[in-house]
Design brief:
This protein has about 140 residues and is an alpha+beta fold. It contains five helices and three strands, in the order H-H-H-E-E-E-H-H. A three-stranded mixed beta sheet has the order 1-3-2. It is globular. The mean pLDDT is about 85.
Length: about 140
């Protein structure tokens, strides 16, 4: 049985179903049936525009993004599909915080719905902050 590192957190029944489809050569057909075409976002500029459009539709009041790029250094097996970080840079006597999203370059040729899932996941950091505040009984939107 071939190891399934991307599915290690899922129930054994799901892993077995995927393993069966994989060994029968049917897994690609299942995926292509659900997602027949890949997205057209190829450049960092296009990824930035794509992400900003989603952000502006659902998270208008969240902090602006200074950078959104495809990153060759993100390893899907060992790290993540994308990273959302606040990078502090010193400019003279001031420290400027930049809000950045990096998406694995390996996701340049995947269906649009799957790219959207990763982008939305990275944008949801603000939602996680809000949930943290709610749990601490500090909801700013009472």
């Amino acid at each position: 049985m071939q190891p399934l590192p991307y599915l290690s957190g899922y129930q054994s029944e799901i892993q077995q179903q995927v393993q069966t489809l994989l060994s029968q050569g049917k897994l690609a057909d299942v995926l292509l049936k659900r997602h027949p075409e890949i997205h057209s976002v190829r450049s960092d500029k296009a990824l930035y525009d794509y992400t900003i459009a989603i952000k502006n539709q659902y998270l208008r009041k969240s902090q602006p993004l200074s950078k959104v790029i495809f990153d060759d250094k993100i390893s899907l097996k060992h790290q993540a599909l994308g990273l959302h970080s606040y990078v502090a840079r010193k400019q003279g006597t001031k420290i400027k915080a930049k809000n950045e999203i990096r998406i694995s370059s390996r996701l340049k040729k995947v269906p649009e719905g799957l790219l959207r899932m990763v982008v939305v996941h990275e944008l949801e950091f603000e939602l996680r902050l809000l949930l943290t505040l709610i749990d601490a009984d500090q909801n700013p939107y009472r």
